[in-house]
Amino acid sequence: MSYTVQSERRFQSTKTSSKEIATKIWKRREGEIALGLFKVGWAGERMKFAELCDEFLSVHSSMLSANSQRNHRMFVKNLREYFGHRKLADIYRRAIEEYRDHRRRQPSQRDPKTPVKGATVNRELQCLKCMFQFAVTRKYIAENPASGIRQFDERRERPTKRMLTVEEEQRILDAAPTSLRVAIILLVQTGGRTYSEGLSLRWEQVDLDNRVIHLGGNVKTKDSDQPVPLTHLASDVLLEWKKEQGSQSPFLFPSPSNPEKPIGTVKRAWKSTLKKAGVSYFPIYNLRHVFCTRLSWVAPDAVVQRAMRHSSPETKRWYQLGLVDQIREHLERVNEKTYEGGQPIQNRDSSDREKNTQADRERRGKNQPLHFRDTRRPAEQVLEVEACN
Predict the structure, then answer these.
(1) So what's the pLDDT on residue 372?
(2) Residue pLDDT, tens place only, 108-166
(3) 147 plus 171 within the same structural domain
(4) 19, 61, 260, 318 - which has most CB atoms within 10 Å?
(5) Which of the listed residues 156, 187, 203 is the one where a domain comes to its end?
(6) Residue 359: predicted pLDDT
(7) Residue 251, H or E segment
(8) Cα separation, 234 vs 230, whole angstroms
(9) Of the candidates 316, 325, 326, the residue with the CA atom closest to the CA atom of residue 292
């Protein structure tokens, strides 16, 4: 086939003996040229994936938060090991799907007996998609090969969300060490995200006089950058914690090894606390769900959205817990209104045919509950049983 690019006529084989297929390839090439998607000598034909990794981390990731930069470095490390030697133009959709399945079969670093979770693979695929989109923007490749890659269903791996009762909360607080106890109270009373809005807070962000927390710029979304009000309980607990801690660290929860840094993780302490308290395990992030659920009991959606610092009020439904109990309560109200205090539905075998009278039918017509009764005579029932046997 022949085509013209940048006032230059070029010839290229379609690598097929079918005239129909060759015509389709030629028309596609003409369409790519018309849309500006075809370019002679794309940089991706010479550029290796490892070079894209370095450029992506230095240009794109450097503009993100510290947590996002750390996650990108971790994701890029695994992606570089698999795709690093390949040219960008040689990475197709099938190769990415093979990486997805290969990564899913690999053993986890924390527990070599279990494979890598689907959620981890999904995060890496999202990072890979972002990297290829960065390459498309810079005209290294024509299209993003990671677009439309099917990801794993994370809901099968996540622990079931459950509501925290007041009695369980008290048992957890009694079993928790002092620093974790303060953190739990803070998260339950403010609904903050575990690390970015809780464990990594500085004292300079906490205004105990006005009972407000100023999160600053290190937040997940723009709507998250709003003052967080403190209740009397949270304010009193933080005031006592500040007096006990003194001025040893600028952080509310400093690292045990280096007071100049915030604590890195509380996963081990959280698991041991739940085990000691006799409460089944759930992620500490679920305390944010507990906060949202309790607040939704007494506050309208607008207040809940503001307290959770969500961009949309629809996000609330993903955080609410205990809806099963609320649905059951409303179903009971439906039964009370439908049957107006009548007898509940009964499923029983009545051998007395005289009970099924016209008076019973009239009473059932007056909003009385229905009865699943067998109105046949006993002799007819015996005959049916014998016939079945």
Answers:
(1) 43
(2) 988 889 999 999 999 999 999 999 999 999 989 989 999 999 999 887 777 777 788 89
(3) no
(4) 61
(5) 156
(6) 53
(7) none
(8) 6
(9) 316
* 49 closest CA partner among 99, 2, 11: 99
- Rounded (5°) CA angle 324-329-330: 100
Q: Does any domain span residue 80? A: yes
The sign of the dihedral angle between the CA atoms of 315, 318, 320, 324 is positive
Q: Print the domain residue range for 212.
A: 166-321
**Number of domains forming the structure of the chain:** 3
Residue 328 CA to residue 295 CA, distance in Å, equals 20
Query: Structure tokens of 71?
Result: 């996650």
DSSP 30: H
CB 211 within 8 A of CB 236: no
User: Is the entire prediction scored with pTM above 0.85?
Assistant: no
**Number of residues written out for the chain:** 389
C-beta separation of 250 from 202 below 8 A: yes
Residues forming a β-bridge with 371: 346
| Neighbour-count burial for 252-282, b at 16+ CB within 10 Å, e otherwise | bbbeeeeeeebbeebeebbeebbeebebeeb
CATH number for the domain that contains residue 260: 1.10.443.10
